[in-house]
Design a protein that fits this description.
327 residues; 9 helices; Quinone Oxidoreductase, Chain A, domain 1; 6-stranded parallel sheet; alpha/beta; Rossmann fold
């Protein structure tokens, strides 16, 4: 038996409990993992609170991330004792996820835990940090350089935003951070932000083309914010879009793209193939300062994760939440 968070759905609606589960209940897969740490991402918050139909099959163990030790494997790439990381691949949506003490998965979804990190640090990064790294990689491949001006990061106090600021600063960029939390200025400056702006400057309807401000951007918010960011991006700049905290809509025009040559780069972390995953984790291992990482982490137990998911949806969480599934 092992403990895990279980989401179920009946006639009266969704229930979420910490439950005792049997290994025979685990779904099919060719690698079994003793999970050491998981984490809470925005998608996990949506799943646990039921605010969006993230979960496609019931019952479901949520958790799109995990790090732990292989206990059994018939996959050629992994053996018992290997330390592994998983991000995405529909885990926590259609396949039991990481918010439990055990998981059974496809070995094709796993990557080796980078030697620079232990399991806790890997989950301090999680899908949020891995997505931030994918965004930085995309901006650099698009030709955005520090000499071209400031990079904007929206949703800056969230997991993606926090890691993006740290990585962009390490890459030599001057970073502007957009947040609705004026009290977090010192936190953002600690991560490397040189400018902090109120998200209200970006969150309302705006003109199709606005004053050029940003060489590029990492946007975690979507909706009017993303439209305004594109409208303010300088000629030839690029915007990496990876989130929808404000909404899935994109009330914009083609003006920034056809008059300023702005590129909108879509970032998908869930189904990204192995080469960009490994490149993103290599950047994290090389460029993410351990002290900066620790400064954005709050650790909780498995039993505390359900309440913390509600906090995440209320927008009161700063940085990253790591879940020790064994306490």
């Amino acid at each position: 038996m092992f403990s895990g968070i279980l989401i179920d759905k009946g006639e009266s609606g969704q229930t979420v409990t910490v439950s005792e589960l049997d290994e025979a209940q685990l779904p099919d897969g060719d690698v079994t993992v003793d999970v050491e740490f998981s984490t809470l991402n925005f998608k996990d918050g949506l799943a646990i609170t039921g605010k969006s139909p993230v979960v496609r099959k019931f019952p479901m163990v949520p958790g799109i991330d995990l790090a732990g030790v292989v206990t059994d494997s018939s996959h050629a790439a992994f053996s018992a004792g290997d330390r592994v990381v998983l991000n995405g691949w529909g885990v926590g949506e259609t396949h039991w996820g990481g918010l439990a003490q055990k998981a059974r998965l496809s070995g094709d979804w796993l990557i080796p835990l980078p030697s620079a990190f232990d399991s806790r640090q890997a989950m301090a990064i999680g899908t949020a940090g891995y997505t931030a790294s994918l965004c930085v990689e995309a901006l650099l491949k698009a030709g955005v350089t520090p000499e071209q001006g400031e990079i904007l990061v929206t949703g800056a106090t969230g997991g993606v935003g926090s890691v993006a600021i740290a990585l962009l600063t390490k890459a030599g960029f001057s970073v502007a951070a957009a947040t609705g939390k004026a009290t977090e200025t010192a936190y953002l400056e600690n991560l490397g932000a040189t400018t902090v702006i109120d998200r209200a400057e970006l969150s309302g309807p705006g003109k199709p083309l606005q004053k050029e401000r940003w060489a590029g951007a990492v946007d975690t918010v979507g909706s009017h914010t993303l439209a305004n960011v594109c409208a303010q991006t300088r000629y030839g700049g690029a915007v990496a879009a990876c989130g929808l905290a404000q909404g899935m809509d994109f009330p914009a025009s083609v003006a920034p793209f056809i008059l300023r040559g702005v590129s909108l780069l879509g970032i998908d972390s869930v189904m990204a193939p192995k080469p960009p995953r490994l490149a993103a984790w290599d950047r994290l291992a090389r460029d993410l300062d351990a002290d900066a990482l620790e400064s954005i982490v709050r650790e909780i137990s498995l039993g505390e994760a359900i309440a913390a998911a509600g906090e995440l949806m209320d927008g009161t969480v700063r940085g990253r939440i790591v879940v020790d599934v064994n306490r």
